[in-house]
Amino acid sequence: VSTQSTGDTVLRELLTHASDRRIILCSFCPTTCVMLRNKQARWPVVLIVMGSTATYTDYCDGRLRSVEACTKLAISENLHGISVFTGLLQDRPAEIVEELKQVGLATFVWGFHNSDQQYRDMMRAYKVDGIIYDRIYEDISLKKRLSAN
Questions:
Q1: pLDDT digits (tens, 9 = 90+) for 115-124
Q2: Which end of the chain has fewer CB atoms at under 10 Å, N or C?
């Protein structure tokens, strides 16, 4: 199955079923992100960057090896932003988030560090645009906010 075919299927299903839901398309594959961005402008597209870490095996695609490389790609292809692996933020999180904001990119973070409430609070203090983590409904404060609506 080709990237084009898969992207077409995803977009067709979104057009059919998404209604007014807030959707953000994201992928670890730069080619997929560019293709999704070129095919539509309704939903923002975010490139997920893992970088070169001891935690995961490196992707062969050099565009994913650093925040800087992903930033250049996201700007040149008019992507909405990038989602940075939390392990890449350890040394200078505020600086990286600020650099992305200065060039107009939305900043999301993903990774096991986000399972920790204190870490999520720190990311919120840095004003990231989104925090991706597992078991979001176990977050008591979110449960309260959802039940209030």
A1: 888 999 999 9
A2: C
